Amino acid sequence: METELRASASASEAEEDTGTSKKERNRKRRNRKKKKRGRGGAREGPPTPTPPRGDPETPSGDPPEVEIEYVSEEPEIYDPNFVFFKRIFEAFKLTDEVKKDKEKEPERAERAESAGVARKKGPEDGTRGSEGDSSEDEQEKKQEVPKLSKKKLRRMNRFTVAELKQLVARPDVVEMHDVTAQDPKLLVHLKATRNSVPVPRHWCFKRKYLQGKRGIEKPPFELPEFIKRTGIQEMREALQEKEEQKTMKSKMREKVRPKMGKIDIDYQKLHDAFFKWQTKPKLTIHGDLYYEGKEFETRLKEKKPGDLSDELRIALGMPVGPTKEEEEEIDR
């Protein structure tokens, strides 16, 4: 029994030794491979670029100068219906100024790069060229024209009222505020179009709407003339006088049980008032809006140019009477 136990113990120890020895061997192999890779990468230099076979070898000197010319494509439009669109395409063609700007783009990029490099430099490099830069900056400031604000530029480029009246077809529509518009010509054109509704005049007033009527006493409401003919006003006045004479008790009784049909007007009077004597009220025409102070303006609709009174005709030495128009035509 003892011999068997010793043999099994020795076998297990041999297996452990072989297992550990295998692990160590594998680890050593990995380390060797890593060392070889590191040495090989250090020895090998950067790969040399192989020139393409088809391209000829260019000399090591300056690259050849290439002139880029921008040519705009002309669309072939044969259909007469689309000929009007040719003008639109012509507006997008490259002109000489655009070509010059495109040629200057690489120069601008180079300047921007050089400016960026100068900014990245340290304080020592900046102090060296500070004296020269300061003198150049002073000269540039002297040469520069003082910049105007946007408000002043707008005022300088603005039309005067006289200039705008000369440019438009309807100068009688032009107002002093039209000059400040974004497009004054378009505004005047819209104002001059037929049946266009104007903006009320009080839009530019500093005070609030209808604030100027504070001191004016509002007259009491008056019935129209054709309703006064029915005699309703006299009947109402008589009823009010009777109610004033009544006691408080009778007034409270009438509130609880009111009596109807106190004012009785003849049907024929009402018919005549609304169908015979009714007159059309003063109405505003299309586009005539109310503005503050409109009711105080004098209306010249009744008087027409050319209709002169007899007194004025006598003063001017013109014929007076029913045949005055015929005599004027004979004189002409």
From TrEMBL:
GO cellular component entries: U12-type spliceosomal complex
Biased composition (Basic and acidic residues): 96-113, 121-131
Chain ranges of the PSP proline-rich domain: 304-321
Biased segments, Acidic residues type: 64-73
Compositionally biased tracts (Basic residues): 24-40
Pfam families registered for this protein in UniProt: DUF382 (PF04037), PSP (PF04046)
Residues covered by region (Disordered): 1-73, 96-151, 311-332
Domain DUF382: 170-295
InterPro entries from the UniProt entry: DUF382 (IPR007180), PSP_pro-rich (IPR006568), U2_snRNP_Complex_Component (IPR052584)
Name of protein: Splicing factor 3B subunit 2
Natural source organism: bird metagenome
